[in-house]
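Case study B.
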Amino acid sequence: VSGSAHAEYADVLLDHLRHPRHPGEVTAADAEGRAQHEDCGDVVRLTFRLRGDHVAEVRFQAAGCPVALAAASAVAERLAGGTIDQALALGPGEVERALGGVPERKRGCAALATEAARLALAGRTRTG
Amino acid sequence: MERIFLDHHATTPVLPEVAEAMSRWQTERFANPSSAVYIEGLEASRAVDRAREQVAALVGARASEVVFTSGATEANNAALKGAAWSRREGRDHLLTCAVEHKAVLEPVEWLRRQGVRVTVLPVDGVGRVDPGAVSEVVGESTFLVSIQWANGEVGTLQPVEEIGRVCRERGVLFHVDAAQALGKVEVDFGHYGADLISLSAHKSYGPKGIGALVVRRGVRIDPLLHGGGQERGRRSGTIHVAGAVGFGAACEIAARELTDLAARLRSLRDRLWGGIRTRIPRVRRNGDPDRALPNNLNVTFEGVYAQALIQGLRHVAVSSGSACSSSNPEPSYVLRALGLSDALADGALRFGLGRGNDERQVDSVVEALVREVERLRALAPVGAP
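Model:
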């Protein structure tokens, strides 16, 4: 028998919630971005150590619902070791897919982490 | 790891004795109790009569006052709509309160759309209705007051005795939704002056799909269901015999064990709250600590989102709100009615203790809460809500 242990959240989302990737804060960060949901108050903060056009280290902090937390973890996992261009190209739709889908009403929470990344890294690229 | 069920406000397990009592009424004894002209039907009819007596005995009513329904939702609908349909001319006003179950608030909203004037009384910070406010609002045109016995989220017991007195003095029907109270606290129909009481079996170790509306002798309300005239014309439809037998058996056990069970649940609840408040900073208890269901504990863990916390408590079944609406993203309307901000309501867990729980389980839940709340708070950035 397969299937998620939750009616709305996929197992991969619950796994991020229970075993977050790259939690915490980069000390003496080169860049940081913070995004907060206007309605529900969920908040995601990403801190970065950059090396050239690469993300040498990324860590997330988050407070809020399961989707906001899991999305922050998933985004940190995706960005670690990649380029800044790749980080800026990561959209909320891809994060939702990486989490096995999110409920329609939670899409704003899922988008907080990519927004925090954009706020941190926009203008940091060599090309952009 | 052993699963720990702490959501007994949502439902309870059917006790083995109850299941045993029900079993034969689903298989070899299948006759329709309305067919009491032959022995099989007569036996079914007698089984239902006995169940009716058992239910009546638990709530201090006469057996003839018990009308079996499919559950408390139907009972609430039957009481509210039936009272509205039977009201005297010139009486168009109904009074209820903000923390009622949706099975009261939604039929009330439906009646409002049909032209009934509705007053929804607020509650105070612990979830209690002020009987003085009921007295002020009840007027010449009021035909019904509907106030719950106990709240299913925060456990607060309403002052039903005082409200019942006001209703009697003014000649207004008084309906009480006692679904959460049955089997947890004494529900004495005769003493408290209610005219209509809604009951549910599955909240008190009986089966799902059966409940009752207790209708005081002499009170006439139009039925919700018309048909074969079962339940003396008050609720048509073939009675769920096995369900009624199970409901009766559960009520008999509840009547026998209520005092001991309440004391045991209260002790477990106090142990749970004691563990939480001494081990975890920034917690607050929601509801009335003095006049509450013995098995309820509603706690806000500040800075933590309850739905995230629940997912971390992997071996515990617990709720962040009433089960009927926990898939709804909105913060609990009950906690908001108590004056909690959205952030505090979002951080609230509802614990509902039951017969199967013990001290070891409670201690295990406290340990898990300490760990998970600390973990989630550590994830939060500085300045998070």
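Chain A touches chain B through 27 residues (CB under 8 Å). The remaining cases will be described in the next quarterly update.
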